[in-house]
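fyi for ur records
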Amino acid sequence: MRILVVDDDPAVAEVIAEAIRARGDGALVALDGSEALDLLETTAVDGVFLDLVMPGLSGLAVLARIRSRHPELPVVILSGHADEELSSEALALGALDVIKKPAVLAHLSDTLARLKRP
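which gave:
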């Protein structure tokens, strides 16, 4: 699988990407929503790990655009700041799951397994 990791914190994005690569999957990193949307137009990916709170385009705005262009692409929301309302909104927009940071790495195997399901 190839996973797109979108996080405005380069250190966090790389830690998640390296954990994905260590499992034998591919990972691409985008540091903001615009970069992520541009990558999705030129590169096929099997799933997206998307930070919810970012400057510029928010994770919700990026998720809405992903849904309009790639309705079947699995998206997992990552956030250290998501309240229940934002989490609910992300799920309503079609997110597969919302995972709180820093628990992302602890749930990585389970989350990647969910992305592989048909």
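The beta strands are 2-6, 26-30, 47-51, 75-79, 97-100. thats all i got for now
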